[in-house]
């Protein structure tokens, strides 16, 4: 997440950004510990379905929300529970967590720009806590991990820069297109 985008990230009424950060920190560490303790085959089979679900929820979330009264959103408790599951999954595997968080945050009432920057902040927190757990595990393959880390940082800065400049309709369409492509790729691999 770029330093300039931090001001756009936020919480929802009844759930502060700090609470979302704590949930993501704990969940990321729990997911990493779960990964170290169990085989990944089950979750690898589940990933395409999670990404498909998140993409559909994100794509339909705004049209459904337009038909609902303005004050109808996911409750803070439901968002906290959803974010807890996403954070554990993020620490465990992480594929598609951005789409899952975008879907949850927009259904909780955040505008797309705020949801995207909040998602970036929460992903950074959960990935950092998982990273710390993995560093102490002895199972890290450092050359590949460092290459992925550099790519992730570059993508984070580029995405945050675009997020603050691109029109919301373009952002929404791009997110749905990327989610659809990622879902197809995950099912076909």
Give the SSE map:
Elements: H1 17-37, H2 41-67, H3 76-92, H4 97-107, H5 112-135, H6 142-163, H7 168-188
Helix pairs in contact: 1-3, 1-5, 2-4, 2-7, 3-4, 3-5, 4-5
Q: Which of globular, elongated, flat, extended, rod-shaped describes the shape? A: globular
Structure summary, number of beta strands? 0
What is Rg? 16 Å
Low-pLDDT regions: none
For the record, give the distance between the C-alpha atoms at the N and C termini, rounded to a whole number: 29 Å
**Mind summarizing the main beta sheet?**
none
Report the mean per-residue pLDDT as an integer.
85
Count of individual helical segments? 7
Q: Give the % helix.
A: over 70%
Structural class: mainly alpha
In short:
The chain is an all-alpha fold and 189 residues long. The protein has 7 helices and no strands.
What are the main properties of this structure?
189 residues; mainly alpha; 76% helix
Describe the protein's architecture and organization.
By secondary structure, the chain is mainly α. The chain has one domain (11-188). The protein has 7 helices and no strands. The protein has helices at residues 17-37, 41-67, 76-92, 97-107, 112-135, 142-163, 168-188. It is globular and about 50 Å long. The two termini are 29 Å apart. The relative contact order is 0.19. The mean pLDDT is 85.
């Amino acid at each position: 997440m770029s330093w300039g985008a931090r001001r756009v990230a936020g919480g929802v009424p009844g759930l502060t950004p700090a609470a979302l950060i704590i949930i993501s920190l704990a969940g990321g560490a729990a997911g990493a510990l779960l990964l170290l303790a169990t085989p990944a085959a089950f979750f690898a089979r589940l990933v395409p379905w999670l990404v498909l679900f998140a993409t559909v929820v994100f794509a339909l979330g705004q049209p459904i929300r337009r038909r609902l009264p303005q004050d109808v959103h996911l409750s803070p408790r439901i968002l906290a529970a959803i974010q807890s599951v996403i954070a554990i999954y993020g620490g465990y595997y992480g594929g598609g967590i951005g789409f899952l968080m975008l879907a949850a945050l927009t259904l909780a009432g955040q505008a797309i720009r705020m949801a995207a920057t909040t998602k970036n902040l929460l992903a950074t927190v959960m990935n950092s806590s998982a990273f710390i757990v993995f560093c102490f595990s002895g199972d890290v393959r450092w050359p590949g991990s460092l290459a992925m880390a550099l790519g992730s940082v570059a993508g984070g800065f580029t995405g945050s820069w675009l997020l603050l400049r691109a029109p919301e309709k373009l952002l929404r369409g791009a997110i749905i297109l990327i989610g659809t492509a990622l879902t197809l790729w995950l099912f076909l691999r």
